[in-house]
Amino acid sequence: MRDAGGWARAREVFGVFLRLGGTAFGGPAAHIAMMHHELVRRRRWVTEEEFLDLLSATYLIPGPNSTEMAIHLGRVRAGGLGLVLGGLAFIAPAAGIVTALAALYVRFRTAPTLEGLLYGVKPVVLALILQALWDLGRRALSRPFAWALGATVTLLYLLGVHELLLLFATGAAMVLARRGPRPRRAAGLGLLPLLPLAHPPAPFRLGEMFLIFLKIGATLYGSGYVLVAFLRADFVARRGWLTEGQLLDAVAIGQVTPGPVLTTATFIGYLLAGLPGALLATVGIFLLSFVFVAVTGPLIPRLRRSPDAAAFLDGVNIASLGLMAGVVIALARAALVDPWTVALGLAALVALARFRINATWPVLAGAAIGALRILLAAR
């Protein structure tokens, strides 16, 4: 009887998260709000306090927050099987939709209408990253020292310093800064000795691509937009497997589809190696989220109570914002190509700052405006 009840709960977990994965637009904050409404208020799987505890746990481990919430909530409802099914069901719809869109992109990317769509979407994506940077920065960069660290990370990222070095060095700098005034001075200089790591362009290898996405999934903190910094560093700057424009297109596709924003990796995998690439990229970027939730869930609250661990995580968050700022500067050249795109980006930024709108709408509006301009220019 207990087994029957367990399977029933597992099926319930799968059904709920499959539906959420296919309808949850608007990024991680919107996804988490939908989970709260459905699973706390309607179904009462967990209490408000338990939901907040789980949410705090997702912020303290690397990986996509909303996907890890699905994994956590699946585990609470149906144990180990629920853990697996909750995550897979939430990821699968978005991965399938992104794969289909990637196939259309590869086939029709030189068509004038698609070029127009992407022409209008790129500046809007840039505005979305800027808006996220502003919202997160107001909370994380509350002191001059934090601003100085974030600006240093941005500069070193643009000079080519490896993003993982920046994350861990900034975390260490914050630990030193919290221990007293003398280490604070040393911590401020601690990032400066990091030198750019030069990498010549490399031939594409499927296994290497999988390991890159596995590494990103294991180290990605902060907003989903920090993903763009990792992708640009590994796929554009170091290996030359993608162009700046293709990266922006991938981010745009991840933004307008439901479910996890990290299915941007699925799109890139398809561009580089078709269906096998899409599958391996998706597995690589999400795999360790399941492991982290299963292994560290009970330990995370204790870690946050450690002063050094809390300071390190604060430093990692500051570095994540610095990486986001570097991405905005680097990608602006590919997105803001003429006065039209500058005006569109500014309009999107104002709309996002002034009104609490779902991020999908400005992206769709940018696509429509871009397509209309291309059609009018063709006449």
Characterization of this structure:
With about 375 residues, the protein is an all-alpha fold. Helix 5 runs antiparallel to helix 16 and helix 10 crosses helix 14. It is globular and about 65 Å long. About 0% of the residues have low confidence.
Number of helices, where a helix is a run of at least 4 consecutive DSSP H or I residues: 16
Low-confidence stretches: 182-189
What percent of residues are in strands? under 5%
Biggest sheet statistics: none
Structure classification:
mainly alpha
Core attributes:
379 residues, mainly alpha
SSE layout and pairing:
Elements: H1 2-23, H2 28-42, H3 48-59, H4 65-108, H5 112-140, H6 144-159, H7 163-178, H8 181-189, H9 206-219, H10 226-238, H11 244-256, H12 264-296, H13 300-304, H14 307-335, H15 339-354, H16 360-378
Helix pairs in contact: 1-4, 2-4, 3-4, 4-12, 5-11, 5-14, 5-15, 5-16, 6-14, 7-8, 7-14, 9-12, 10-14, 11-12
Brief rundown of the structure:
This protein has 379 residues and is mainly alpha-helical.
